């Protein structure tokens, strides 16, 4: 996607200011997870631009199709994907894609994962089983990822319990976050980029890692704060 001078980003004061039109290096990040875990919320909270959302109001037609266990107050749902952007420097931007969570839209995930540098898997401890498919597809594609437990007030499990429940490899970072908070969401992305850099360093040392990790520019994580 091209950067346009008409695009706007948030300045340090929180207002929107023109984005640079010089960006020519786009890094794609996908935020994925089960239904209602906070993917749309995270994209909204951290994006520099006004995010593109494809949310639709949930209706009676969805009863019996979408499992609302633990998220009965949810009134809208993503039906395609969310899109946001973060400017790292004048030449490099992160493109953020939030994947739809319902099982009936999982067929879109493989296409969203194409060309992805890395992914954030959001989990809700009220519905941990919903994250299985996301992790399975990312591992199938060889896409590096981290797992972030979104604070929705669910059961407080120890990190080891969450790892066991999700069968996470010990090398996959597991962190806490609040998707409603811009600062917390930024820290999630920083953790992902640092993880990708570690994988890239391991690759340069001869340790096999996903190919996508090697494409990460050095020093990127320092530009996101």
Automatic annotation (TrEMBL):
> Which Gene3D superfamilies does the record associate with it?
P-loop containing nucleotide triphosphate hydrolases
Task: Recite the UniProt keywords alphabetically.
Answer: GTP-binding, Hydrolase, Nucleotide-binding, Receptor
Region: Disordered, residue numbers: 1-20
One GO term in the molecular function aspect is:
hydrolase activity
Question: Which CDD domains did the record assign?
Answer: Ras_like_GTPase
Q: Which Pfam families match?
A: ATP_bind_1
Q: Record's InterPro entries?
A: Gliding_Motility_GTPase, Gpn, P-loop_NTPase
Family of the protein in this entry: Belongs to the GPN-loop GTPase family.
Q: What protein name is recorded for this chain? A: Signal recognition particle receptor subunit beta, a GTPase
- UniProt source species: Streptomyces aidingensis
């Amino acid at each position: 996607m091209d950067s346009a001078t008409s695009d706007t980003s948030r300045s340090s004061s929180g207002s929107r200011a023109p984005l640079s039109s010089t960006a020519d290096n786009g890094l794609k990040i996908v935020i994925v997870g089960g239904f209602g875990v906070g993917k749309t919320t995270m994209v909204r909270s951290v994006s520099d631009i006004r995010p593109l959302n494809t949310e639709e109001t949930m209706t009676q037609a969805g009863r019996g199709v979408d499992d609302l266990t633990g998220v009965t107050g949810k009134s809208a749902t993503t039906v395609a994907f969310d899109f946001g952007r973060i400017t790292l420097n004048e030449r490099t931007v992160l493109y953020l894609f939030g994947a739809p969570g319902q099982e009936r839209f999982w067929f879109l995930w493989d296409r969203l994962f194409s060309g992805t540098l890395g992914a954030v898997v959001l989990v809700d401890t009220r519905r941990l089983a919903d994250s299985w498919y996301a992790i399975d597809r990312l591992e199938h594609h060889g896409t590096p990822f981290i797992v972030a437990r979104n604070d929705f007030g669910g059961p407080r499990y120890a990190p080891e319990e969450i790892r066991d429940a999700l069968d996470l490899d010990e090398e996959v970072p597991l962190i806490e976050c609040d998707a409603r908070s811009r600062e917390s969401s930024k820290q999630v992305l920083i953790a992902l980029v640092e993880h990708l850099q570690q994988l890239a360093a391991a690759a340069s040392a001869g340790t096999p890692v996903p190919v996508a990790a090697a494409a990460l520019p050095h020093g990127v994580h320092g530009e996101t704060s």
